[in-house]
Amino acid sequence: MKRSAAEILREYGPFPGVDRVHGVTYDGQQVWFATGDRLNALDTESGDVRRHIDVPAHAGTAFDGRHLFQIAEDRIQKLDPATGKVLATIPAPARGADSGLAWAEGTLWVGEYRARKIHQIDPETGTILRSIETNRFVTGVTWVDNELWHGTWEGGESDLRHIDPRTGEVLEQLDMPAGTGISGLESDGGDRFFCGGGDSGVLRAVRRPGR
């Protein structure tokens, strides 16, 4: 297992009226981050919040290329990002104990925080297709170039982990600086991860290791 220190490229925020960051996703142009009662769209160049959608946003956020998906307590809502309209709702697999959310392979991947699991679910029904066990709390989930990564935050320590999607084995680990937590995770499809900073109210861009 390869282990190294995470390289923080940039920090965004804190933002007015935001005391905690939950889910994080990227739509190819801007980062969306959940803050409890709304989703916010961040311009990663200027650092400005361009717009927001008023919607329950208590945990993970994902984007499938057209729609946003947002965990709202014990359910996952499918949203039109242009209007903010809720198009569909499915049950969340952990019934309110869910954390990270990602889109890959035509399905949703949902972290179950304290159970240390990641569930692959049907985005139409919420049916669990399979579950992966890991050995740390799961606080964020993302896929990039066929690699499954998740964030952790446990016992005052936080890191990013590349895991084997079949076995949960940790293949690579990026240790965050002391006192820095991860509360949501997304890749930009390139060399950056975007990480929610929990109750610090900030977002951080972290360098993805080169291949």
Descriptive tags:
single chain; 211 residues; mainly beta; five-stranded mixed beta sheet; four-stranded antiparallel beta sheet; globular
Short description:
By secondary structure, this protein is mostly beta strands. The protein is 0% helix and 55% strand.
C-alpha-based Rg, rounded:
15 Å
Q: Could you state the oligomeric state of the chains shown?
A: single chain
Task: Choose one word for the global shape.
Answer: globular
Question: Tell me about the biggest sheet?
Answer: 5 strands, mixed
Strand adjacency order, main sheet = 1-18-17-16-15
Structural class designation: mainly beta
- Roughly what fraction of the amino acids lie in strands? over 45%
The first-to-last residue Cα distance is 15 Å
List unreliable stretches of 5+ residues.
none
Number of helices: 0
- Give the averaged pLDDT, no decimals: 96
Walk me through the topology:
Blueprint: E1 2-5, E2 8-12, E3 24-26, E4 31-34, E5 36-42, E6 49-57, E7 61-63, E8 68-72, E9 75-79, E10 86-91, E11 98-104, E12 107-112, E13 117-121, E14 128-133, E15 140-144, E16 147-154, E17 157-163, E18 170-175, E19 184-187, E20 192-196, E21 203-207
Parallel strand pairs: 1-18
Antiparallel strand pairs: 2-21, 3-4, 4-5, 5-6, 7-8, 8-9, 9-10, 11-12, 12-13, 13-14, 15-16, 16-17, 17-18, 19-20, 20-21
